[in-house]
Design goal:
By secondary structure, the protein is α+β, with helices and mostly antiparallel strands. It has 13 helices and 21 strands. A hairpin with a 2-residue loop joins strand 4 and strand 5.
Length: 414
């Protein structure tokens, strides 16, 4: 059963929230962070992307960069830009995108739940990215940015969310990308006990986004436990920062593919090869969106096509084989285009659906790419089924939007 707790959050004063809050470290590069933080010493990028305080081109993994994160985190607290709450709290964090709002509960999740599989994952992690976040957590002695969790819908927690969110939020702002962020502090011990109890009744939590942050937090927690001869399991380092959303609140959007060449085939030959495994229908010059699961959108030579796999080309009984990302990876990318490793092959790139299918068209029309493939989004049910069966999704399968804003609250390991 899931073990969670409230914690003494480290947060910006209300009047500074928009200056401090930032996008997550992994959705932008160093130069983009440098531009966004320009003229703003309070930006969290100085802690989560501290290479921006050095000359452009500085290696973000240089030890002096991690040291700078520590210096900046200390300076933020000394200047009163980040202040620790007097007592432990849970928090409610809501996000609004295109008129739709999703509500999550900010918790301290248990490291050992991650290790023992109570917190389930659906993606593989890369050791180098784990190492980077582990060093960042270790040197700052804090989880600066949260992990994004989902949990099975729970009526009692929904009621708590509604009641808390009916009050005035502590933070309420619209970020430069147009997404709204709303944050409440829960200040009622009875409500806190109810939240803890409800999570204790859940057999599993699910990582939606933040697999590397979860793995890094767990490694630091276990490291600290090993170094502490008086370890009890209740120390703060046994927990890490997460925002947990009811599964029905979340929406996964499409994660699409663009490919640089047709593996020596002409466009006509490529379409002929596709027709062996798919019903291919030309849709014209207007953007065509996939209409349902097992329907794909192809952009090639200035035209859009609908692709529907023929009967028997995939296995509905296999939780991985039934995924559209698997069908397209096997029947198109591997069998026709010779792309076998989505993680390392330089011929393929990936485009989050938040950019729209116009981005796919533009990258092909520019000559940078030869073709684009749009996929119907994975469902939360598919994600949970895969995690529950112990399977791992193929690379670049899920894209959650909006992303959690960083800097609303930080979890100290002390």
């Amino acid at each position: 059963m899931a073990k969670v707790k409230p914690f003494r959050g480290i947060r910006p004063p209300k009047e500074m929230i928009e200056q401090v809050a930032s996008r997550p470290y992994d959705v932008l590069n160093s130069e983009e962070a440098r531009r966004e933080a320009e003229g703003n010493p309070k930006s969290l990028y100085h802690i989560i992307k501290p290479e921006i305080d050095f000359e452009p081109g500085t290696d973000e993994h240089d030890p002096k960069v991690y040291d700078k994160a520590v210096d900046n985190f200390r300076r933020f607290r000394e200047n009163g830009w980040l202040v620790q709450d007097e007592r432990e709290h849970y928090y409610i964090y809501a996000q609004t995108m295109e008129g739709r709002t999703q509500y999550g509960i900010v918790i301290a999740a248990n490291v050992h739940d991650y290790v023992n599989g109570v917190i389930k994952k659906h993606e593989l992690t890369r050791r180098d990215k784990e190492d980077d976040r582990m060093k960042h957590v270790r040197v700052n002695n804090a989880n600066i940015e949260p992990v994004f969790f989902a949990f099975p819908d729970n009526e009692r927690l929904e009621k708590i969310i509604r009641e808390v969110a009916s009050g005035n939020p502590e933070y309420d702002f619209t970020a430069p990308d147009g997404f709204g962020h709303h944050f409440w502090v829960i200040d009622d011990p009875e409500t806190e006990r109810a939240i803890t109890e409800e999570f204790e009744g859940m057999p599993h939590l699910y990582i939606a986004d933040g697999h590397h942050r979860s793995a890094a937090a767990a490694r630091v927690g276990l490291e600290k436990a090993e170094q502490n001869p008086a370890h009890t399991g209740e120390e703060e380092y046994n927990y890490f920062l997460a925002v947990a959303f009811p599964a029905s609140h979340l929406r996964i959007i499409d994660y699409n593919r663009v490919v640089r060449d047709l593996n020596g085939l002409s466009p006509a030959e490529f379409l002929d090869r596709l027709a062996k495994d798919f019903v291919v229908e030309e849709k014209g010059a207007e953007i065509y969106h996939p209409e349902r699961l097992h329907n794909f959108s192809l952009y090639l030579g200035g035209r859009w096509y609908s692709l529907t796999p023929r009967e028997g080309r995939y296995n509905d009984a296999d939780p991985i084989g039934v995924l559209d990302v698997t069908i397209s990876s096997d029947l198109i990318l591997r069998d026709i285009l010779g792309i076998t490793d989505l993680r390392s092959d330089k011929r393929i790139d990936f485009v989050g659906g938040i950019r729209g299918l116009g981005e796919l068209r533009d990258r092909v029309d520019s000559g940078e790419m030869a073709m684009a493939l749009a996929l119907y989004p994975v469902s939360m049910k598919q994600l949970i089924d895969i995690a529950d069966t112990g399977n791992i999704m193929p690379p670049k399968t899920t894209w959650f939007e909006p992303k959690l804003r960083s800097g609303l609250v930080i979890h100290s390991l002390d």
